[in-house]
Amino acid sequence: MNKKVKNASVALEGVTHKMTLMLGGFGLCGIPENAISELVNKEIGGLTCISNNAGVDDFGLGLLLKKHQIKKMIASYVGENNEFERQMLSGELEVDLIPQGTLAELCRAAQSGFPAIFTPAGYGTEIAEGKEVREFDGKMYVLEHAFKADFSFVKAWKGDSAGNLIFKGTAKNFNFNMCGAANITVAEVEELVPLGELHPNEIHVPGIFVQRIFQGTDYEKRIEQRMTRKKE
Amino acid sequence: MLNKTSVAKRIAQEIKNGFYVNLGIGIPTLVANYIREDIEVEFQSENGVLGMGPFPFEGEEDADIINAGKQTITAMPGASFFDSALSFSMIRGKHVDLTILGAMEVAENGDIANWKIPGKMVKGMGGAMDLVASAENIIVAMMHTNKAGESKLLKKCSLPLTGVGCVKKIVTNLAFLEIVEGGFKLVERAPGVSVETIRKATEGNLIITGEVPEMKI
Fold first, then answer.
1. Assessment of whether the complete model's pTM goes beyond 0.80
2. ipTM of the complex
């Protein structure tokens, strides 16, 4: 089955104002750089974005924030972005902070056909306020509902026209869980290889979870905290 | 009194052979430097790596290999990479043996607050709520008092909670304490620190039974 589209512009066809989008990545690691640039180009606004983080001031989702394209952000940690903080404190931006493991599992639930999950994370805290709680084997759990999103944008290392994906290193993160978790999953890859080149043993995400795939360009792959040691 | 490095060294003594350990940001990260050489330990970072190694050599940084603090790292022989849901399966499923993290406040019943100062710092909880809600074995690494000199070991947390009744052990610059029925049990004193100093710096109920030995670093 051929899922290949020409470029980011075609891949984003059907994305409109006020949609709910999932975007993969952890910090700036494995973010769908091309899709984010194209959302900026197309000036699509009023978005609800589900992503672990919100980028930095001048990269990642920070680019959408700067243009005021995000209405609501659902994330677990947003500490690296001053503009984010400013918009949140001024009330321009709605923010729903949820525990990282819950965020991952609510993507997985959406991907897997579960309407909700019970998690111990956040029990007894303000996160659980107004939510159903239940005891299982003497421990308390909070009911959290699976995400519902229109588009999911993920970035992989390699992929083929069938939509099969392979990730590199810790760039698998939320990208893996967001595949198939929205109505339409768009994957961008560093290397789009001919069908048959990826060995079935190596594939992380089977193509069934991906509707559109394109060869990304000009990856910056910025490092947030460059740490090194000296050779002795 | 202990400095941050010594707090990390004392916590490192709690790590046993065969442990899978999740380290938080700050003092906990330093613990990795002081593990005994005769034991095997693997570090898990919740963004998706088990078997995390030291920082890369200059020029060998890889944007695709980072830890939860977004720092470039390396992978040890035998390491693995995985997705975020599987990472928290390791944590929620109690496969990770020990979690070491920082805190702004700990209460005498084991409640912990470390993610939010209303109106001031709202960065998000990241993986902290999942970690404290699930881990069987949690050690908190922190200073005994805050910058204003107020105790961080309280009867009741004043900041929004991260988790309830979950902390088991605390290592501060002044003492090693365990949470027991009724309060903070003073297990060891930092070198040169008196029981009286610790008592004054602890707002929550401090339980002292017999002679309190001095820590060996």
1. yes
2. 0.97
